[in-house]
Specification:
The protein has 2 domains: about 10-180, Rossmann fold; about 225-315. About 55% of the residues lie in helices and about 10% in strands. The protein contains 13 helices and 5 strands. The protein has helices spanning about 10-20, 40-50, 70-75, 85-95, 105-115, 135-150, 170, 185-195, 200-210, 215-235, 240-270, 275-295, 300-315; strands at about 25-30, 80-85, 125-130, 155-160, 175-180. The protein binds zinc ion. Zinc ion binds near residues 51, 52, 63, 69 and 70.
Length: about 325
Amino acid sequence: MFDNILCQQKIKKVLLNQIKSGKIAHAYIFMGQGGVGKRLMAVELAKNLNCATNNFTKTDIGACGRCVSCEKVAKNIHPDLHFIDFAKQAELENEDLEKQKILKIETIRYMQKEVATKAREGKWKVFIIEPAEKMNLAAANSLLKTLEEPPENTVIILIAKHKETIPKTIVSRSQTLFFQPLGQNEMSTWLMLNHSLVPVKAQEIAELSEGSLENAIKLVNEKESEGFSSIWHKLKTQKFYISDLLELSKNAARRDALGCVDSMMVEAKKEFRIYPQGAALALDFLNASRAKLLQNVNAQTVLDNLFFDLYDLSNN
Ligand SMILES: [Zn+2]
């Protein structure tokens, strides 16, 4: 159970025991730094509570992962799993996601309406509030009312990074679970499996990530984009056979075509002062490729053409 979440054994044990004994808390606070599995754990809890086939009194297996309910939770389309977050708020207010800086009382009120309605498909309704520390006072006071009269078969999970920022009145009505930084060995194994890193690289990144998978993934991406900028310089300075050029674009497309175009754009802009004409042409190619990628044109086709164009540009 909770096998897809790294570390956090104590928390898994607490939740498992609660599910088995039917003593689920009405409200939890999942507390801890970014990238340690808080949101994932909340989703897995929702999955376990609503799985149609599991039987916790007989096994420890937990959610089956295959029934309709488990699949809907995994795809984030289960009607009884609600994310009360900036994305939801932006949708409710018809605003840009970037504009959302605090969780407002209107968003909590929307949640309360959902809390008051019956579960649609599952046994349990699960509400995940994130980032809970960004609720303003009005929102927190409003939430408090729901916590004071907890509805049946409803779990509210607050996800937060800092305990001080959650009002004490809310903390006292919730069960707080503290998420620890992830272990380096577990992270490095995960990086090898999921990002095909060689052991030395995986270990190096795990050491630098301060126990956060979020940091680790950022570092992996940075390393990858360093690789992309070197492609730019190769195209400008090396001689290529067509087959090598195609191999290069195939690899880049497989890794992250848009990331590749974006980091090449950074390089092209750097050259603007020295070779304005060449850089302008290169930027035209890059912009056109970017637009095609955003329109879901096949990534490899886009990069094949782009790499040929850029190579031509430097060799004419
Ligand atoms: Zn299931």
